[in-house]
Amino acid sequence: MYENKFWKKSFDVGLEDVDPQMWEIPYTEAVKPIFKEFSQKCALAFLGREISFAELDKYANRFANMLLAHGFQKGNVVGINLPNIPEYVIAWLGSLRAGCVVSGVSPLLSTSEMAHQLKDCRAKGLVTLDAIFAARVRQIATSLPDLRLIVAASIGGFLPFVKRTLGRWLKKFPTGKVIPLPGKIVDYFANVLEEGRYPDNEPTIKITPGDVAYIQYTGGTTGIPKGALLTHRNVFSLLVIIQKWFDWRKGGRTALSAFPFFHMAGLFFCEASIYLGYTQIMLPNPRDTDHICAELAKYKPSIMVNVPSLYQILAANPKFRKLDHSKLEMCVSAAAPFPEEAQKELVAIVGEGKLTEAYGMTETSPLVTVNPAKGKKKLGSIGIPLLNTDIKLIDPTTGEIVPIGQAGEICVRGPQVMSGYYNMPEETKHVIDSDGYLHTGDVAIMDEEGYLRIIDRVKDMIIVGGYKVFSQNVEDILSEHPAIEMIAVVGVPNPERPGSELVIGHMTKALGYRADDDDVTIRDVLMFAKKRLAPYEVPKKISIVDELPLTAVGKIDKKQIRASVRV
Fold first, then answer.
1. What is the CATH number for 94?
2. Beta partners for 102?
3. What is the chain's percent helix, strand, coil content, to nearest 5?
């Protein structure tokens, strides 16, 4: 902790901590007025189909009443295993209205990973794609004794008949056969939404701010996936804080994000869009940048929220460069480091002052720091601590608070911090200290104005002969070289020096740079590295690859890169 939260001096004029009483209301109650006030406004825009707030309200109520009709009770877990399609939002909101707990299940999980998560959280219900049902759910259903209900959706479920049929015929939509399973109730999502099958009124389930809303799985700060317990108070407090931070008024805006809803950043985007009465543009395939450009051209959103790697891929698309971005007010970047050179390139396309970096994690619902909405934005900084949020930076080895300007692990305390990991009390004690601070595993430097700059994950920090090498710092510097489009730096054990590591770089090459000679390009980059970096920071080896592996969220997958390195 630092004296008097000195970073408050960097807050926008008039911003102060919020009265905690403002979030003593469950999310489901907080959003009720929105469905009346903006009933005819488009809530979800999906591949040309627009769903109003009134329709979303009705569909969510039908889903909630379906759960109750099948005997679901308050606190039961519903896993949602879908891409960003309307059925996800309906199932999410309907589950919350039924008093249930939502657990996002990535469609990219392997069969065993999916089984582990559903078994660990004791999911009683699962909403999945018909294709995933056929490929995975049928294999694991008998090993999930708690799972009682499975509802299968399809990618084109909300599209007109002709588009849906063409999509399947041209194999643009994955499909699979849904069959009965012993001991399980199996139904189609379309049946749940049929007129008259389930009531349209919202069920009267008593939900409190302290009730768990989500069990969101994460690798956390250590080890295997763990379920972060996030309450209605956690998620709604952050919505209140962010609304004040950006001075967002309800209604009137359109927002676009490629973050998947099964990830906390995507789920927060969805929560916020509903709470503020915004239209959200849904992207089932976040890597289809031509489609994203078409949606940007059609809807001209005010707010865009993405992971840095997608902004980089968009910036490389000529269609994105040619778009009129005059109505775009803000590009929020989060979930991964954003190289400064790439930031400058994006800003040159969308306009000055529009890029806002943020930082957080699943365990913090998910935000901790954000650059000011109107005040100073520092390029390469993740901003300053949010309202009602306290920060301390500690030496990972001693636990002592480090002075301003020195690197330390970010520890955070605030109303958005999870209550703990599901059924893992020891892991919870490991990351939340006796003063209530969550130890994030991220290493940063805080300046005299309270702005933070991430320099590494504790686990990604590379030790070379006793020296600490911060991979993001190396990546930021090397990204300035014109040959590099994207780069990732990892550490691997040095076989000649036990306890020491080798710095290894994987890069994609900028279009047109020495197109026919990778060896010369690598020599150029290494010469540049030797001029700009300390000797122990210079990569021992750099490889040029066609593309860097990405996680389901779009972060560079350093774990996969490490596994591929051959020294």
1. 3.40.50.980
2. 78, 214
3. 35, 25, 40
- What distance in Å separates the CA atoms of residue 237 and residue 490, rounded to the nearest whole number? 36
Among 476, 444, 471, residue whose Cα is nearest residue 339: 476
Residues 497 and 452 in one domain: no
Question: Any bridge partners for residue 49, and if so which?
Answer: 46
Residue 459 in tokens: 């686990």
DSSP 137: I
DSSP string, 58-115: HHHHHHHHHHHHTT--TT-EEEEE--SSHHHHHHHHHHHHTT-EEEE--TTS-HHHHH
Amino acid letter, 276 = L
Choose one of 172, 207, 242: the last residue of a domain.
Answer: 207
Whether this model's pTM surpasses 0.90: no
Give the helix/strand (H/E) hosting 238: helix 232-246
CA distance 96 to 77: 10
Alpha-carbon distance of 540 to 201, in angstroms, equals 64
CB 65 within 8 A of CB 198: yes
Let me know if residue 213 belongs to a domain. no
pLDDT per position as a tens digit, 311-354? 999 999 999 999 999 999 999 998 877 888 889 999 999 999 99
Q: Given a cut of 80, is residue 128 above it in pLDDT?
A: yes
Q: How far apart are CA 104 and CA 2, in angstroms?
A: 36
- Residue 493, domain extent: 461-564
For residues 270 and 373, state if they share a domain.
Answer: yes
Q: How do strand 407-413 and strand 390-394 relate by DSSP bridges?
A: antiparallel
- Can you spell out the DSSP letters for 250-270? SSS-EEEE-S-TTSHHHHHHH
The pLDDT tens digits for 422-468 are 999 999 999 999 999 999 999 999 999 999 998 887 778 888 877 77
- Do 399 and 537 lie in one domain? The reply is no
